[in-house]
Specification:
By secondary structure, the chain is mainly beta. It contains two helices and 14 strands. The strands form two sheets. It has a twelve-stranded antiparallel beta barrel. Strands 2-3 form a two-stranded antiparallel ribbon.
């Protein structure tokens, strides 16, 4: 009888103590799943509305507004190398061509504060050569765009761009070699009212044509940019030292000086798929 009583008491003690033992046992923390590595692929795109499409100081829209847009696929090999390919387009003055469509591709290389963009762009003008006197012929150019971040508020850069098939030889006498080079800067101002970043963007460049009777010239521009998230308002002044008779619209379109001083306002939206996630 005593053995039975002792057995019952022992069982009660064990069963009562078991929950306490379990509560005192350390519980392993669940390991958080590692964050997935960011995709090396990305797509950037944007659209712009401008009061005048000015290229290297010359109006391409007869001093009238233009609609522009671009699409660019990107692949990041690592933090230092990005490959890209895309297309940019704009409306034009009708006496040049129906539109300008620029396929392009290349690589961007970064080392510390130094950056270098190397690539090729093809200026395609649908039906440009169907215009008897002033049409554009499609052609391609190679380019190099170095940049250097001097300080948080200052980045300087340049562009070297050229080829030997300017205007596809259309209406060209002699050499078809043409190139341009420029220097630029982005100066971020110390104010950001309401989160709007403000920057000053000066540039000076030289366009060189080697064709017979063609006019080489120097251009300069300075812009004031207001950027809020993906939206930028660019207010820019352009001018050149080209003679007033060198780049003129046909008489039927007003005979305007396309290389003279002008003020241009551009509203741009730029983003990427990774930024939208």
């Amino acid at each position: 009888m005593n053995k039975v009583v002792l057995s019952v008491v022992a069982a009660l003690v064990v069963s009562t103590a078991a929950p306490a033992f379990a509560a005192d046992m350390p519980v392993k923390a669940k390991m958080a799943a590692p964050a997935p590595a960011p995709s090396p692929f990305d797509i950037a795109f944007g659209v712009a509305f401008t009061t005048d499409y000015v290229l290297r100081g010359i109006s391409q829209t007869n001093r009238k507004p233009a609609v522009q847009g671009y699409f660019e696929a990107r692949y990041n090999i690592n933090d230092m190398i990005q490959l890209y390919a895309g297309v940019w387009g704009s409306s034009l003055a009708s006496y040049f061509a129906n539109a300008e469509i620029d396929p392009n591709g290349g690589g961007r290389f970064t080392l510390g504060n130094f950056g270098l963009d190397l690539g090729y762009v093809y200026y395609y003008y649908p039906d440009g050569t169907s215009i008897a006197t002033t049409g554009y012929g499609s052609f391609g150019e190679f380019y190099a765009k170095p940049t250097y971040k001097v300080a948080e508020w200052l980045t300087i850069g340049g562009v070297i761009d050229g080829g030997n098939n300017f205007n596809n030889g259309y209406l060209i006498v002699g050499s078809k070699t043409a190139y341009f080079y420029s220097g630029n800067a982005v100066i971020t101002l110390p104010w950001a009212p309401g989160g709007v970043a403000i920057s000053l963007n000066p540039e000076i460049g030289r366009q060189v044509y080697q064709c017979t009777g063609c006019t080489s010239y120097t251009y300069y521009d300075v812009g004031l940019d207001f950027t809020f998230k993906a939206v930028t308002l660019d207010l820019r002044y352009w001018n050149t030292n080209a003679p007033s008779t060198a780049f003129v619209a046909p008489a039927a379109f007003g005979g305007k000086n396309l290389a003279g001083p002008t003020f241009v306002a551009t509203l741009k939206f730029d983003t990427s798929l990774s930024a939208l996630k």
